[in-house]
Amino acid sequence: MNRVKMKLSGFPQLCIWIDRKADYVPLISTVTNLVNIFQKCVYIPTLQEKNLSVSKSYYRYLNKKSFGRCIVLLIPILGNIWVGVWDIHRYRLKNKNPKPLRADQTINSPQDAVKEINNESAPLVIVQKGDLTLDNLSEKFKKDKATALAEMQKNGWELSQAREDFKKDQDIVLAAVKQSGLVLKYAHPELQNNKNIVLAAVSQDGLALKYASQELRNDKEVVLAAVQQDSLALEYASQELKNNKEVVLAAVKQNGASLKYASQALKNDREVVLAAIHHQDPVLQYLDKTVINNERFVLVDFKHRCLTIQYGGKKIKNDEEVMLAAVQQDGLALKYASEEIKDNRKVVLAAIQQNVWALEYASRSLRDDKYLLLIAVRQAGSLLFYASPWIKSNKDIVLAAVQQDGLALRHAGEDLKNDKEVVLAAVQQNGQALQYASQELRNDKDIVLAAVQQDVRALEYAGEDLKNDKEVVLAAVQQKGKALQYASQALKNDKDIVLAAVRQDGQALQYAGEALKNDKEVVLAAVQQNGQALQYASQELRNDKDIVLTAVQQNGLALQYAGEDLKNDKEVVLAAVQQNGQALQYASQALRNDKDVVLAAVQQNGLALQYAGEDFKNDTEVVLAAVQQQGCSLQYASQALRNDRKVVMAAAKQNGMALRYASEQLQKDREFLKLCNK
After folding, report:
1. Is the pLDDT of residue 499 over 90?
2. Cβ neighbours of residue 111 under 8 Å, at least 6 residues apart?
3. DSSP letters of 607-667?
4. What angle do CA 263, 302, 376 make, to 5 degrees?
5. CB contact set of 365 (below 8 Å; sequence gap of 6+)
6. Helices and strands (H and E) in the chain: how many
7. Helical H runs in 180-285?
8. Which of 161, 327, 465, 629 is most exposed, with minimal Cβ within 10 Å?
9. Dist. CA 182–CA 171, nearest whole Å
């Protein structure tokens, strides 16, 4: 039988031929497609950016190869089968009556690909549909203008891969730039100077102005169209048009940031600058200093964007009218005011009414103004921090602060940290404020009870006497069992307290006294709430069947904490694996070889098969039960059962990905794969 001779015109074509053949060879395809993905993501973008032409046909081919194909081919065998079946099916549908191949025919089209597939003696070389773009079609196919136009209308970027004669063709280039303006970059220089084409390009993407000729970058109509589509295109306009008020106004009205590309003269133009400011804050960094210091201009601007005061001159920052307008828009503008204005009560009041955090920037004297401070702390108690020490001892102000934020108690004067009314208000708002109370009040039962009722963690900050107060600790552990950790040692050994704690959270058993960890009633209550609490029980109770059975029924994985004898108790282990199949890993070796136990485990979680005895990994009934619950448990079956059609079919039905664990023989069986996919 005759083999098809591939026309390899140089190294790039050889690379293409090898890459196509490799797609159908397991493992080799994994390596080549990893390389392909790397080149597509990292190397090719660099080549395109630098406009390199070395091995251009190879990189064009690679650029057109789909990521989906590359990713599928990373999977050995299955990926190759899928791609091969898909390609053959697709092209046979298109070419049901292929003609015999000539011995010297080159594969350049879908028809050639199908002929190659039907020639059993030829190497299996398949061209994807996605690969058959302008670069890969035959010379005759490329010169078909109608086809080329259709390609450009679908994807203008095809122009980057087109022949030079196409890049000179007005119809083709026009179709391309209408679809993607930036491809003007690839047009012939003559067409980059064609007004109709450039207008079409910048109307689609204003930044295409970058690739227009110098002459058209100085054309008002073209530049206006560009900046109206994308104001930042002003960067590429000629110096003359950057000084044209109509053009610059059109740009800054769309995006104030484009002011940075305007001429210096227009950066000083009041109308242009105000138009820019109205559309974007950061524009003041591009303004001329004389404009920034114009009081009337800044006042108008602040009605739109107050924080631009940071770019203003000293005179502006000391102007009461200007600063009042600024802080009424955003109180934090006070930060940029002069020291004199920061001491202006009218301005500061307006600032904190707009944003209370502006108090930080007020003068020291105004931060101590009781009226202003009250306004602030009623909205943000922590602002008490900025007050002077003598103000921090003012009960009205501190009370207002802690009622808004209990933790503001930290900023209160020492005398008020010992004031029961103030501290009670603080802990009622936030129990954790107890840590800032005086030692005396941390031993006050009313205070501590109020604190733990708001946040049980406050028990940590209670005085030692109250950590030993049964009423206080009971109130805490009933809300959060683990608060037991803050109780006194005596109460950690109090059965009522510990029972209340473990009923709320079984894990609180870890903080109980040793005697109660050996109390069956306490431990039973703990494991009923959380089976994992078994780990904190005494060794004796971890060998108590009632306790362990209760624990594993709540959480099968608690079996790991059971005594060795109970890990070998069939009733206990069955209960565990029925709750969580993965508990099989903690069973004794004997029970991991017990069919009843193993079946129960894999029926609950197929992946438990990995912990079964080796004999059961070769047991059809067990493995079938496992794969029916979780198809991917096929990976733990014996080699013989991974080659069993019934078992593999069941696995694939549950989870298609399970096919990766089938035997190599079944992965290559096309008829079987079709059955699995039905």
Report:
1. yes
2. 95, 98
3. GGGGGS-GGGGG-HHHHHHHHHH-GGGGGGS-TTGGG-HHHHHHHHHH-GGGGGGS-HHHH
4. 145
5. 343
6. 40, 0
7. 195-204, 220-229, 239-242, 245-252, 264-267, 270-279
8. 465
9. 16
Asked whether residue 198 carries a pLDDT value surpassing 80, the answer given is yes
3-state secondary structure 498-558: HHHHHHHCHHHHHHCCCCHHHCHHHHHHHHHHCHHHHHHCCCCHHHCHHHHHHHHHHCHHH
Judged on CB neighbours under 10 Å (0-12, 13-18, 19+), 326 is: buried
Say if residues 168 and 141 touch (Cβ distance below 8 Å).
no
The amino acid at residue 274 is: L
Distance CA 328, CA 140 (A): 72
Q: What is the pLDDT of residues 110-128, one digit of tens each?
A: 334 434 434 433 333 333 3
- Please state, in angstroms and rounded to a whole number, the distance separating the CA atoms of residues 141 and 162: 12
pLDDT at 46 over 70: no
Task: State how far the Cα of 310 lies from the Cα of 336, in Å rounded to an integer.
Answer: 6
Evaluated on CA atoms 83, 88, 89, 93, the torsion sign reads positive
3-state secondary structure 351-398: HHHHCHHHHHHCCHHHHCCHHHHHHHHCCCHHHHHHCCCCHHHCHHHH
Instruction: Output the six-digit token pair for 65.
Output: 């190869």
- 8 A C-beta contact, residue 602 and residue 625: yes
Query: Could you identify the residue written with the tokens 């105004």?
Result: 366
Residues 6+ apart with CB under 8 A from 54: 47
> What is d(CA 331, CA 309) in angstroms, rounded to the nearest whole number?
12
pLDDT tens-place string over residues 526-564 = 999 999 999 999 999 999 999 999 999 999 999 999 999
Residue recorded with tokens 């200093």:
289
pTM of the entire predicted model: 0.49
Q: What is the largest CA-CA distance in the chain?
A: 105
Give the per-residue pLDDT at 119.
44
CA distance 61 to 132: 9
How deeply is 428 buried, as exposed, middle or buried, from its count of CB atoms within 10 A (0-12, 13-18, 19+)? middle
What is the C-alpha separation between 258 and 249, in angstroms, rounded? 10
Return d(Cα 640, Cα 671) in angstroms, integer.
Answer: 20
Measured CA to CA, the distance from residue 306 to residue 302 in angstroms comes to: 4
Query: What is the rounded CA–CA span in Å between residue 431 and residue 446?
Result: 12
* 400 SS3 class: helix
Cα–chain-centroid distance for residue 382?
Answer: 34
Only one residue has tokens 């702390």, namely 377
Residue 91 — very low, low, confident or very high, per pLDDT cuts 50/70/90?
A: low
